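Predict both folds.
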Amino acid sequence: MNFLFKNDRESVSNTSELDKHNMKTDDARSKNTRKLADARGKYKYNYTHIPSIAMLDKLPWKEYPSMAWLSLVAEEVINTIINTLITVIDTAIAKWRNRKLPRKNLTTRTQPSNAKHLNYADKQTIPNILINAIRFLILEAITKPAIVPILKIIGLSIFGNFLNWILKLIFKAHPKSDPKKDVASLQEYNELFTEIQLPEIANYFEEDEVFAYMRVAGYNPLTIERVDKLEDKFPVTEAQYQEVMGNDDSLVAAGEEGRLYLADYKILSGATNGTFPETQKYSYAPLALFAVPKNSDSLMRPVAIQCAQNPLDAPIVTPKSDGYAWLFAKTIVQIADANFQEALSHLGRTHLFVGRFAIAIHRQLPDCHPLSLLLCPHFQGTLNINNLAQKSLIAPGGDVDKLLSSTIDTVRALVEADLQNYSFNEAMLPKQLEKRGVDDTEKLPVYPYRDDALLIWNGIHQWVSDYLNIHYKSDEDVQNDTYLQNWATEAVAYDGARVYDFGEKYGRIETLNYLIDATTLIIFTCSAQHAAVNFPQKGIMSYAPAAPLAGYQPVSILKGEVTEQDYLNLLPPLKQAEEQLNILQLLGSVYYTKLGYYSDNYFSESSVKTALEKFQANLLDIEKTIVQRNYNRPKYEYLLPSKIPQSINI
């Protein structure tokens, strides 16, 4: 089948028509050759940004962000700037008046609210004028046509630099910036939220049910796996198990019946601890055991935690442990989960995973090729945001270096090792769920991520199948598509995208079914998978006690009596918590484009438009199903189709 140009669909009935067709084909082929040669000059691979990972060398002008995207980002940046300013003003005024801000004990619930700590009269005049002036100046700046080219060149980094400049210029030293100062209560973290609403998770994150729910519906619902029994490195006893699950249950029975689940963070073992700025951070590789109660369709329960891979390094802690040991251990699991999420589930397995295909498609497929037409909207903004990340977020001294437990070199090495071993062909969602043993809804009845993600996966798969069946009528059409095969070859090439196992054979696509599955995985990763790990950064992870990005106490604390202050000292210093709030609030707030909705008349063929309308109707049905599910479970909205962007653009 010929994909040299969109409108080459006419039949050829005589010699004269054949000559014209051949001439037209030769012209189109020559034009495509020139365009692809030009694209290869602009889209070059770089293997040093993160050593050995295929990334874009320099960002072509075509990939710079739109003003619509910049406006959305700017709006969220303004919110974080104002939130920080109000926090600083609140604290400074209280300090100047020798008035301490009210503190609450650890167990006090604080309802989500936009209310400020000082009353309105306290914050009139100069502070309000200053805040409104800053808001006005930022809005003026981003709406002036004359600076559009500058914004496109500088991109996202302008906003972070502007925030730092404002704080340094006006306040010189942040009243809460001393990392050595002990935090006295959780209320101090709550007080970081002023203009930005305190997330609901702040009210109940300590609860065991919430801790278990994070494994199946949190910011990283991808680590638990079913186990038949425990390895020697995690020697949970029958007595410890029954202490939680009851005397009518047993560890052996739970394993045999498929009710035993493990979150093992061994991939993080051996990581080099980081520092901020001179305060020691700690990386952890815990194991956490969960079990579904007998004859139950309820959520699994947390049974035991070991905060290191070697039982000699950390004792086993259970919900029945004395003092703050259990909360301390749960927090270490949350820290490990957050580091896994940011480095692997988020950066490696979505951003960098997809970025390689985005580069290859520009280099090997003409713009009019049906696969290019289908995939390019799902790559919108990805190369730009990856480029910005390697210059800022994941650069030495960037937010990853500052906030995560390990050094930036360790994080980069971890991402590299994981992505090199992350099998494309095993990454299909149904295969992933089966591989981890979490696909059985009877054995593991409560798993919102699994249930909602499968709806989206199947919807995308149907749309991709309908679309590609319009353009490919047989496996032979796939095999004979030179452009497609060149793209597949470059995907696995050492001097290409380095996706080591792409294709049915090394760098070959032999069947239409494989092409459908592979395309589904790419689109699912660009949209739903990224949404599932990105947007909880705002709703959950922006509140540092619920999901600390680093720990500040060694696991050896668990060998003695753990106090409330030990637990508080495990959490990030307030300045770190504020940095975490600012960056994750931004990254989790920008919704640009929506899954299933392409630009007007993007697809010209009526058959494709019909298939797209079917997909859009399916997404509406999925939305209704998820909304209905949320009446019968703790709310999980990260995979509502209306909240899933088309691409990784933040």
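Second protein follows, with its predicted structure tokens after the sequence.
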Amino acid sequence: MIYIDERKKAFFLEGENFTYAIDVSDGYLRHAYWGKKIERDDIDQLLFDHPAGYVVAIEASASGRGSLETLPQEISFFGLGDYRTSCFKATGEDGGKVFDLKYDSFELLTEKPSYSDLPMLKGGETLVVRLLDAAKRLELKLYYTVYEECGCLTRHAEITPLGGTVFLERALGFCVDLPDCGYDCITLYGKHSCEAQIDRQALGHGEFSVSSCMGISSHVHNPFMALAEKHATENAGDVYGFGLVYSGNFFLSAQTGEFGTIRVCGGINPLDFRYRLREKESFVTPEVLMTYSECGLGGMSRNFHRAIERYILKRGVPPIVANSWEATFFDFDTKKLFGFIDGLKGLNIDTFVLDDGWFGRRDSDRTSLGDWKVNTKKLIGGLEPVINKCKENGLKFGIWIEPEMISEESELYTLHPDWAVKSKFLKPRTSRNQLVLDLTRKEVLDYLKSTFYALLKNHDISYVKWDMNRPLTEFYSAGLEKENQGEFAHRYVKAVYELADYLTRSFPDIYFEGCAGGGGRFDIAMLKYFSSVWASDSCDAEERCRIQYGYSYLYPLKTVSSHVGASPAHQTSRSIPLESRCNVSAFGAFGYELRLDVLPQEEREFIADYNLFAKQLRSVLAEGELFRTENPFESKFTGFIVMNRQKTKGYGLFYQSKTSYGDGIKMIRLRGLDPKKKYSVPKFGVCAYGSTLMNMGIQHKTTNTDYQSVLYEINEAEND
């Protein structure tokens, strides 16, 4: 709920387990408190005016005010004596860069506003705090929405010039100044085929930041950050989490201050950002999803998962898919596909997805992106015979597309070379032999809308994998004036949202999966349009344990596309047993990336039975709560448990990596159970109370074989 004390000019945003409080100090919006739920009446007597900093000590003493350098702020501005990282910087028509925005008024909305060009969580009651420049040249509105049962809130800002044109040069949509309690900073880093690796390090003096300047959220850093108490664990300790709802160039920062504070702020990366705003033209920043947990990292993740599942994701259960890419790559024709599809019969798979290579003259990655017409020499009769073959075998049909790209060897490039993102003075810089289409141009966006609308309208397609295989370069558009070139990166990502919104709204029954060379654009914003995201191009189960564990800090596992690959794995040449590959992949949006039609009969029978089991698991995964029990970044074990919200049924995974002589008994301590209920765990032959299973655990005898795993079922049993 949101409570407002108008007399004290104080605002309280409260969830079931947290309080977030702000007030007005000398006209500035002050961050008062964020943490475990407290009584409102106590806050004001525990707050005090912060001491003046050295630079403004004399002035502050004379005026009776503290320094902005020490004031815990809700939003910060350049040039006012606060020398920490600022959220906003703008240049007016006179060249001046300083705007002194102070509290003006507030408004309480019954419904959170929505924007056509930026994805945000759906929401109800929303607090709007209006700040106004003393000269009434600039207005800033801060929006706060509380998700009580999720332990979360969201924030975004809207800035509007009121007196002439302004060039916005910095637009970080949120700022939180917390007391410095010696926190660790946690982020997710990586690279292609090795995404979402966990980094935890103590915050020292200065500023620690993660960012992207690739035009996408990137494989290198995910738009996520958390602050955790030194001794915070998976299950205990204070943790503050931040997830940006944005897919483009981003910036997240944690900065230790001079007077015992930590400032966390984030939003659009200021690098090469300059946005022209004419008078009364508003700019809305990307949203941030924020949570506080006193129950450690696991509590943080479950808060995030609930908010994302309930307020941004589409409803629906991911199908079990067989994707053709690692099975055939570009080397296929109708006959070969028929054989592959016939081989899926009886395996209890839901959907066949035809990946790259079906269009233009696409026999390699050098050609045909942009020419979205079926290669009828390769696929005799087009897509229809393949779709019909799927139906004969009880399968639905899915297809791969890469809308944002263009090949120099393509009909589209011959007709419209200016549609590619490139500088007019330089030779175009390709990556994976392709260029990026300039989606900021209306004619390009209209072409893509009509092209893919026709493809999906004219064929019985139930699944779309939307790929994006290279970052942006050049950052220039022939369709923008020179004063607007600094807007390109942000306009590009908004155009991606527009195209995705158009197609997903036009075809609400199609399941859309996102991809960007793996996890290059895995962020909350894309989950507004895509029900899951291809997490990594590595299907190696050993690597996937760490990748999926890392992503689970912020994202529900049902959004993490995870497929069973071949053995040895294409990416690592590592051989892992089929059961372990399946068990790891089952804790995600499940599917296959291998030649299922040529597997030995015993493996086919195993897969057929396993898929029936996986369909039971995915129903719990879709609505349940995740508990991490073993950390692959700290040991050779990985452990997940997902329990339904009634705590009556669940599934657990225990995976062991490399073994060594002397391995023997491992205690598996379950999580997420009702301590007073009794549970049976048939795989281990155990029936015991939840308190026993969570504290004592189950004895599991490890083997001397590498990469072994156990996937076990947990069922509520009748108490004696």
